[in-house]
Amino acid sequence: MTKTKTNRFRTQLRALADRVGATAAGLEEQVRTPTGGESAGGISNVPMHLADVGSEAYTQELNATLLENESHLQGEVQAALDRIDGGTFGTCEACGGAVGDERLEALPYVRHCVGCAAKAQSGAAVNLNAGRPAAWQSTLGDGDASGAPATKRSGSAKRPH
């Protein structure tokens, strides 16, 4: 990779780090803000409507998740800047091949080439029943699409009075 390209990516990564850092700082402030009543800046300690409390809790959890994502991205950007300083930027960490300029243009902090990234992403099929008790799994199979077990109905069965 040429020095000009490396410097361009360094500038791009620093700008991304600044943007992500500002976003993370705003999210952290929102996540740390207490919800409901006087603790949230209200004029009384009277509980809010349950729907309002639920909306606030949802927003706070969403912001916490977004903060986690931004923090991860900050780490990846810093690692990419470290790779530039170490002279390994643009080299796949798995196979040692070139990552590719097109991929770096799209995601300048990537660690792997397209082939190695695809291998890393492909894994075993997701099995939502793995780890569940066997007794629970035995209720599946003969059931309907909802997973409820099938029941036999007889037209001649007598109903209780």
Q: Which segments are poorly predicted (pLDDT under 50) over 5 or more consecutive residues?
A: 152-157
H/E series: HHHHH
Please report the total strand number as a whole number: 0
Q: Helix coverage percent of residues?
A: 40-55%
- Give a short account of the largest sheet: none
Shape: flat
Query: How many helices?
Result: 5
Describe the 3D structure:
The chain contains 5 helices and no strands. It has helices at 3-32, 50-86, 101-106, 114-121, 134-137. The chain is flat and about 60 Å long. The termini are far apart.
Short account of what is shown:
With 161 residues, the protein is mainly alpha-helical. The chain has helices at 3-32, 50-86, 101-106, 114-121, 134-137. Helix 1 packs antiparallel against helix 2 (50-86).
How is the topology of this model organized?
Blueprint: H1 3-32, H2 50-86, H3 101-106, H4 114-121, H5 134-137
Helix pairs in contact: 1-2
Attribute tags:
161 residues, 53% helix, flat, 5 helices, mainly alpha
